[in-house]
Specification:
Layout (H helix, E strand, L loop, with lengths): L1 H30 L3 H24 L7 H38 L2 H35 L7 H55 L12 H4 L14 H34 L3 H22 L9 H36 L4 H38 L6 H53 L6 H21 L5 H4 L3 H4 L9 E7 L4 E6 L5 E5 L2 E6 L18 H15 L6 E5 L5 H6 L7 E6 L2 H7 L7 H5 L3 E5 L2 H7 L4 E6 L15 H9 L1 E12 L5 H12 L4 E8 L2 E7 L15 H7 L7 H5 L2 E4 H11 L9 H12 L4 H8 L4 H6 L16 H13 L14 H16 L7 H16 L8 H13 L4 H14 L3 H16 L7 H14 L3 H11 L10 H10 L1
Parallel strand pairs: 5-6, 5-8, 6-7, 8-9
Antiparallel strand pairs: 1-2, 2-3, 3-4, 9-11, 10-11, 10-12
Helix pairs in contact: 1-2, 1-3, 1-4, 1-5, 2-4, 2-11, 3-4, 3-5, 4-5, 4-11, 4-19, 5-8, 5-10, 7-8, 7-9, 7-10, 7-11, 8-10, 9-10, 9-11, 9-12, 10-11, 11-12, 20-21, 21-24, 24-36, 28-29, 29-30, 31-32, 32-33, 33-34, 34-35, 34-36
Protein name: Methyltransferase domain-containing protein
Keywords: Membrane, Methyltransferase, Polyamine biosynthesis, Transferase, Transmembrane, Transmembrane helix
Family: Belongs to the spermidine/spermine synthase family.
């Protein structure tokens, strides 16, 4: 029967950790993801657990059959679990729609949120805290008293093992297939099944012929040397309860410190945290399993416990010694695994093993302490009350440890100092226990003295030894697979904050990179810190520089008279800086979750000076969702520029529910700007974000700020205002941008990528929306990062010769006529290449000639000679392919216009040399398609499809597909468009989930 109950307790532990994991997600939506909010959720959960355990401890002697009460408690937990989602949704809706607006003040809203959070999870937390004492007492009453220690260790092992499994099953499997509501239901059903089974089992084996009050005398110590005999009963109990409290403080300090340390190695994604948490709990389970055979045989529990405490503290501090080696292990793992699905699985297994290598030595010892303390107190006059009492004291210690480490120790003494402090606590507790036990054992005093001396030496050496090298810590090995040499980087700033470790590095090019947990979040080129250069030496606005400027200014261009703005994510401070360049702006509120990020950005002065020196700039340290819940302000402009959504917690700023809140915070005529990245993410995830946004905003447009970053500008109106590009020419902004090549209105218009009218039908059909309760982005973004996929369909709409979105909107993208691209875009680079090709720039002038220009010049020159000749080419298909390449060289990056004289020259040659009708038709089709002459293009579609069927493909299949479908739709031939899509779709070579395929499919079907 014990085996069956152990299996049930494994299931119960798994369900319990599923609840904790889900509650942190649910309550994060209510109270935010700031450091205080995260600790608050943990305090409520652990406080409830402590209360439940203490309640059982006080009533232990009055409970007839604890196992039946355990079954009842499990059933209640399951029933509450079934109702939790609906209760949360109704409560949060009432809070945001009615309660918070009525309260008004930030402080009162914060108190209300915390109160609601406590009311939501406290009942279940109290019940969960009662499960271990009840199950343990129920099993003990059915066994011989001399096996109490073995039973406690076994049950603690089972519960911890279930918890370690539960966090992985929920995070890696259940959440993705069932979302938060479905995962809650699974956990609740597990509770109900466990309850039913426990209730049935309680009747199969009767209680032993004793009750809780008899337990102390039956379980009396077999050895007169038991330390309890040398101490007053109360003092003995108080000593052990103090150790239970203190070691829990230390253990949670370890957990907080290790998670931060390992975040720099394993990454900050949600799955990485789940692996760390599981590894920590698994160590506890192993420790309980190891000690279960030894707990009953010890005649000197204080000495046994003291040795375990010393070993634990030493192991924790010594883990610092091989921590830096973990960076090398991670680099080897990244080099070994392949970037595919099997490699991704191996990546997780490797990270799990690495986390265990750091944590297990100390956590195994930690897992031994609670069974040892509980068994020792069972021998005292406390009897079964000891089970709940020890559990309660241990849980209260966990609360203190987590709060102290997360809120005060990490920012004050850093992650290394925090871990050393935790180890010192355990070492001190161990020495105290050995000193108390010393008189009862020969050589005990010497053992205690040696332990005290070793403790002092270890703490002194570890405290005085050199700290971690910030170059290594900021390597981002989990992403790049390389580790910087110690001292190889010029690190200007490095601090451990409450939510992240923040660094600022100066590169070899004198530029700056600002990173959190080793992941770059912003960078500035050296040009920002130099006086403006002569026109001929100015660089293009590129990379992060382009995103930081365009994100603020293109959004502002849609609300040029904005007076109030909010920026989500401080980063380098450049978005705030540019918004404050507007003379109409009265206040810009920047919301940042990590205080050290703001401090780090000061290293980038004076480039971002207005963010810090302008009195209109207000910085708020808070979670963005929590901030908007507590403010009644309405903003003309909101710009959201958080970190990448694979970072834990960040994806909550890309959900339907967040966008609904942001939409409500906009003033009439206000606009919302959202940054998205196209690197390390797949098209489906980007579409999920856009689907979420489109459900809350009636209009939106996408702009490409560089080849891998996108800005979404959204509005509550039916259509966005026409951008007023004069915001780029205000005095302060113009002075900032004078460092770069000039940006004309035409260039800025050309950054447009796609709008809601073009993308909306595709999103409405089959895109899965990213939401709070079905967080696909959070669960899948790290996979996309690991695999290195890109949302290339979005960027390709700028690089395709026939730009589908531009064609759907019939936007005219005329050539800028510039030999030097003003922005680092494929579109502008192509236009610059065309200009240089026509100018016949010398191929030796490598400073002026873009890659491929010389080859384009040769192609163009060769074709010019052929067009002037009277000879037909020997191979028409091969020759026509060369013509298409030259056409692309000349026109790439433009739409709606062509070089009419050049097109006419080619057409005359085709007619003069009696080119095949398929070639002449293809040329007429191409010209008509790229100039939006839909009737002419539609008239040629049948010929081109017939030519393909005969094995003569004159045009690229993707271009033919896009233009043919669009031409037939524009001329009212829906059936013909459907037929073209069906005939040409496979030939285009695109994946079914490709964005362009989805857009066309939505149009024709």
């Amino acid at each position: 029967m014990t085996l069956l109950l152990t299996l049930l307790f494994i299931c119960s532990g798994a369900a319990g950790l599923v609840y904790e994991s889900l509650w942190s997600r649910y309550l994060g939506l209510l109270v935010g993801h700031g450091a205080y909010a995260q600790i608050l959720v943990l305090v409520i959960f652990l406080g409830g657990m402590a209360g439940g355990a203490a309640w059982i401890a006080r009533r232990a002697t009055r409970i007839g059959d604890p196992l039946r009460w355990y079954a009842i408690v499990e059933a209640l937990v399951g029933l509450l679990g079934l109702a939790f989602h609906d209760v949360f949704v109704a409560t949060s809706a009432f809070a945001y729609d009615t309660l918070f607006p009525a309260l008004g003040g930030t402080a009162t809203v914060t108190i209300a949120k915390w109160t609601i959070a406590a009311l939501l999870i406290l009942p279940q937390s109290l019940l969960l805290g009662a499960t271990f004492p009840l199950m343990t007492a129920g099993v003990l009453r059915r066994q011989a008293a001399d096996r109490a220690g073995r039973t406690i260790g076994l049950l603690y092992f089972a519960n911890s093992l279930g918890a370690a499994i539960g966090v992985l099953v929920a995070g890696f499997w259940l959440l993705e297939i069932a979302g938060l509501p479905g995962t809650l239901i699974v956990a609740a059903v597990v509770n109900l099944l466990v309850a039913a089974a426990a209730y049935l089992l309680s009747g199969r084996q009767p209680l032993a012929a004793r009750d809780a009050a008899d337990t102390p005398s039956v379980a009396a110590a077999p050895d007169a040397t038991d330390a309890g005999a040398a101490l007053p009963s109360g003092a003995f109990a108080q000593l052990l309860l103090s150790v239970a409290f203190g070691t829990a403080v230390a253990s949670f300090i370890y957990e907080i410190a290790w998670i931060r340390m390992l975040s720099l190695v394993l990454g900050s994604a949600t799955h990485a945290f789940e692996l760390m948490l599981s590894a920590f709990i698994l160590g506890l389970a192993i420790g309980a399993f190891v000690i279960r055979r030894r707990a009953d045989g010890s005649g000197d529990p204080l000495r046994q416990l003291g040795l375990v405490q010393v070993a634990m503290g030493a192991a924790a501090i010594l883990s610092l010694g091989w921590y830096l080696d973990a960076f090398g292990w991670m680099a080897t793992l990244m080099e070994t695994v392949q970037r595919n699905e099997a490699g991704y699985a191996a990546f997780h297994v490797g990270r799990y093993a690495l986390a265990m290598a750091i944590m297990l030595p100390a956590t195994i010892c930690a897992g031994m302490t609670l069974p040892l303390i509980t068994r020792a107190l069972l021998r005292s006059a406390r009897g079964e009350r000891a089970i709940g009492t020890v559990y309660a004291w241990n849980t209260v210690g966990s609360i203190i440890g987590a709060s102290a480490a997360g809120l005060w120790l990490l920012p004050a003494i850093g992650v290394r100092g925090t871990l050393i402090l935790g180890g010192t606590i355990d070492l001190a507790l161990g020495c105290w226990l050995l000193w108390v036990a010393a008189p009862l054992r020969a050589g005990g005093r010497r053992t205690a003295t040696l332990a005290l001396g070793a403790t002092a030496a270890l703490v002194l050496v570890s405290s005085l030894s050199p700290g971690f090298d910030p170059s290594v810590l900021s390597s981002g090995v989990f992403r790049y697979g390389t580790v910087a040499e110690a001292g190889s980087r010029d690190i200007l700033f490095y601090r451990d904050g409450r939510t992240a470790s923040v660094s600022v590095q100066m590169g070899s090019d004198s530029g700056f990179t600002l990173a959190t947990n080793g992941k770059p979040d912003a960078s500035l080129q050296a040009v920002w810190f130099e006086p403006p250069r002569p026109d001929s030496l100015r660089p293009a606005l590129a990379s992060d520089n382009a995103t930081q400027a365009l994100l603020a200014l293109i959004t502002l261009a849609h609300a040029p008279t904005a007076r109030e703005a909010a920026v989500i994510g401080h980063g380098a401070g450049m978005t705030t800086h540019f918004l404050l360049g507007s003379p109409t702006m009265e206040r810009v509120t920047t919301i940042e979750i990590e205080p050290e990020m703001v401090e780090a950005a000061k290293q980038l002065m004076p480039a971002n000076a207005r963010a810090f020196e302008d009195p209109r700039s207000v910085t708020v340290i808070d979670d963005a969702r929590a901030f908007f819940a507590a403010t009644s302000h309405r903003f003309d402009v909101i710009v959201s520029e958080p970190s990448n959504p694979w970072v834990s917690g960040v994806s909550a700023l890309f959900t339907e529910e967040f966008y609904a809140r942001a939409a409500r915070q906009l003033a009439p005529g206000g606009v919302f700007g959202q940054w998205l990245h196209l690197y390390e993410i797949e098209d489906a995830l980007v579409l999920g974000i856009l689907k979420a946004l489109s459900t809350q905003f009636r209009s939106y447009e996408l702009y490409l700020t560089n080849d891998v970053d996108v800005l979404v500008v959204a509005s509550n109106a039916d259509s966005l205002p026409t951008p007023d590009w004069s915001v780029f020419r205000t005095e302060d902004v113009a002075l900032d941008l004078a460092r770069f090549r000039p940006l004309s209105d035409a260039a800025l218009r050309a950054t447009w990528l796609v709008g809601h009218r073009q993308l909306g039908p595709a999103l409405a059909r089959d895109s899965a929306s990213n939401s709070d309760f079905y967080p696909q982005l959070d669960l899948r973004a790290e996979r996309a990062r690991f695999l290195g996929v890109e949302a290339d369909a979005f960027a390709s709409m700028h690089s395709d010769r026939f730009a589908l979105a531009d064609a759907m909107a019939e936007r005219v993208i005329a050539p800028l006529g510039l030999a030097r691209a003003p922005l680092s875009h494929a579109r502008f680079d192509a236009q610059a290449k065309s200009v240089q090709m026509r100018q016949r720039v010398s191929g030796n002038d490598t400073s002026a000639v873009l890659v491929g220009v010389r080859a384009a010049q040769l192609r163009d020159a060769r074709l010019s000679l052929e067009l002037a000749s009277d000879r037909p080419p020997p191979d028409w298909p091969l020759w026509f392919a060369e013509v298409l390449q030259v056409e692309r060289d000349r026109h790439q990056g433009t739409m709606g216009v062509v070089d009419a004289a050049w097109y006419a020259q080619v057409e005359r040659y085709l007619t003069r040399q009696r080119a095949p009708e398929g070639a002449q038709s293809a040329w007429r089709f191409l010209r008509a398609a790229v100039t939006y002459d839909w009737p002419t293009a539609a008239a040629e579609v049948r010929t081109q499809i017939a030519e393909r069927d005969r094995g003569r493909a004159w045009l690229p299949p993707a271009l033919l597909l896009d233009a043919a479908v669009l031409a037939r739709l524009r001329t009212g031939d829906v059936t013909g468009a459907q037929a073209a899509f069906a005939r040409l779709g496979n030939a285009a070579g695109r994946r079914p989930e490709d964005l362009r395929t989805r857009m066309l499919d939505a149009l024709v079907n």
